[in-house]
Amino acid sequence: MFVISGFSFHSNTMKKIMLFLIFITSALAAQTSNFTYFNKVFEADTMNLLSQVVKPINDGYLVIGGYITVNKKAIYIMKLSLMGDVIWFKHLDEGNNLGVVEDGKFAIATSDHKFVLTYAKGQPINGFGEMHLMKFDEVGEILWHKVYSDSSSKYAKQVIETTDGGVALVGIQGENSPARYYLLKTDGAGNFEWDKSYILDGSSAAFSIQETPWDGGFIIGGYAYNTASGTGNYDAWVIKTNYLGDTLWTRTYGDPLGNDCAALVIPLTTLQEYFFEGKPIEYLLTGCKFISDIRYMYLAKLDEFGNIIWEKQYNSIGGYNPSAIQTYPIIIRSDNVTEDRNFLGVALYKPAYYQQNRIVKFYFNGNFAWSKPITCDVEADVYVKDMQPTPDGGYVLAGYRYDAPQKGWILKVDAEGNFCSPVGCDSTVVVSAAEAAGLPNKTPMSLVQINPNPVRAGGALTLSHRLPAEFPVAQFTLYNQSGKAVWQQEFNTWDRTKFLQLPLGLPAGLYLWQVSYMGEAAASGKLVVE
Known about the structure:
By secondary structure, this protein is mostly beta strands. The chain contains one helix and 39 strands.
């Protein structure tokens, strides 16, 4: 048993909570090589704990995530050894208005061997989202913490380090107006330098950014409402800018008659390849599209101006329908021409009732190479939010079991996606808190909540949700007791709270509501109309 001090919940009585880390089993190193596998689940007796980010360091891994108690939300950082054992656990920020660290794009390792994290908080007065940027070192000591806020809501979706030593963040800006791409540039100390916003024909949300090293500009991916087809829908939208964020070109991708996922865009061409080897500028785009209500994973290779060199789409991998790649795609760089520019990531699939994950690898031309299912619980919704290469040639992944009780999950796999569960090296770390008053477990927020319930006919419902925002829209449908759909409304997923005005003529009675997301039922419940 390890006792970690220096971690506390700041309640009115300012009582400190000690953490006891109990290791049930330890990781098992492979017998035939020096490669280390581990499969760790982290659970807490007084809090729900998620693991969304993992970063390899020389002597282990840093894990970043969120936890929640009955009256507290916080962001934590935890150090693991090379075997996946917990070394220490600290908190970085807290507050009931704290946003979620969604995935691995929210944190980066910097060139000075430090780390930068972005997240959002609601402003105390108006609740508008403000962007936070924090830099800390390998022992979790905060070096600086910056806040960027004004009269609009801003939410970052990715942070990167730039070649001038600064930072660029991209995400969403919007409050009482159509959302738009938002790009913010800072210096190396987090001081504001400039910002830009971009919009197509309607709501636009950015989810990825990379610096283009040959010109110091940026390539930005996301989705935007597009009226070009005449029907109006959401398409993947890519913007190329110069080093000041001025637009050089834009391009939409996807099915013109359906809603498409956000684009993640990564430069394939390195600085050396461009200047010293004369290779052309090329990008990889990943996302998804819906064709006749069927979901396809979508992959494309783009040229310097966003023109499609090749494109691939998959509606079945391993016998199941895959989502878009959920983790930021990893591009393999190798002297072996058959391996160079191959890429991999993690996609969701639904074998039965629960969301599960597959590592998927593709060749440089977009052809499918292999996939491996991974999970920490086959009887619960499981999500992987980060995947990073490790110095030994493998990968480390961070995610969580979403169903109550929520548990963090860190997995170490080899280059072929093999992990150690079959040979018994999985283990559970229990984080317990000793507090005089005691903090009971808080049931995690469901994916969708509806209030008030009951509601008056013609009244307004408040819909709160935690659906992934990488797909732009979801549908709320009311059914009567005969199973007939009587009312439906579409809403944007980037907006976590939506007000739904019920029709005046809706008869009083008991109804079933359902929220559909990416062609599947995501949540449902009963609603009483008075």
